[in-house]
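S1.2 Input.
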Amino acid sequence: MKLCKKMHHKLILVVIFGIALTASGLVIWPFQSWDHLIQKSRDILLTRCTKTPSLSITNTDGSVSDYRNGLYAVQMEAGVILKGITNYGPVIVKSQYPARQGEWYLVFGNFESGGYQAYESYRLILLGTDFPTNILAGKSLDGQIQLLLKWRLDMLDKQMQHDQEEKKRLEQGIQK
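S1.3 Output.
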């Protein structure tokens, strides 16, 4: 009986969540797994951001708002195609992630309506400004994805170490 009640409550939450997302016109799915993401992404590519998107827009009435529908339309250059039928060159990637000019990204997306739909922030993986794309040569798609995820994890580890050192210095400064 308790199990049935719990499932009923979960179902209600899922329905409410679905209605809320549908009302906004944009469906954002929670991360499930890398295997699921790879399978559901028709296109997987490495891109370099060519222009940092504006963090706000000017509405037709002259007022200024946050980015439209919670998404940035990021101008990028497709550099390496890992999966899909994609052309090299300029592309638009629509995402919650505000990419920065000059940085490489691993993009898990689907090409529709003239751009890549990569709405969820986990679909853009920052690789930095100096990512050596030649290290992917000769590897399978799974091997490439593993290498790219490890690259990002190493970046995060270094950044977290740096942030911890900075935090410690700042804490020492305010303890006077």
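S1.4 Remarks. The CA atoms of residues 33 and 39 lie 10 Å apart.
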